[in-house]
Amino acid sequence: MKQPDNEKITINLGHVDLGRIDLLVQEGFYGNRSDFIRTAIRNQLVAEADAVSRSVERHTLEMGLRDVTRSELEAAVARGETLHIKVVGLARLAPDITPDLARAAIGSLTVLGALQAPPALKAALKDRIT
Fold it and tell me: Any long-range contacts for 47-51 (C-beta under 8 Å, 24+ apart)?
């Protein structure tokens, strides 16, 4: 099953701000409202890049895509380790991971972004996902 590359969000804007965005779209600066909002968010993230980097280092977070595999979890269990996975971006749990293996190997799962996992895994880890 192909997963979407984007997450949909909803925001509330005042009438004046929305009108200003519509004016920029009408004048051809942006293709549509979403284009403006994506650009504004990217620009703000660039402006705050140092703060994000310091926070990532402080919290020992992984940035970007984090694929969690069955073999990784099996190896952790074999070593007697419990994983504490922290991701800024997208975390994906492989579909061949069993709920029992996930509970045995994952002590906590923090995702700032999106988590893609089979419903059974999400249910098994619901008390460990933040």
Answer: none
Q: What is the pTM of this model?
A: 0.63
* Domain that residue 37 falls in: 15-47
More confidently predicted of 13 and 53: 13
Pair (84, 102) in one structural domain: yes
Q: Of all residues in the chain, what percent carry a pLDDT higher than 90? A: 78
Q: Are strands 83-93 and 106-116 parallel, antiparallel or unpaired?
A: parallel
Burial degree of 56 (CB within 10 A; 0-12, 13-18, 19+): middle
Residues 73, 74, 76, 77, CA torsion sign? positive
The mean per-residue pLDDT over the stretch 70-83 comes to 93
For residue 99, pLDDT over 80 is answered with yes
**Angstrom distance (rounded) from CA 116 to CA 92:** 5
Check whether residue 55 and residue 118 sit in a common domain: yes
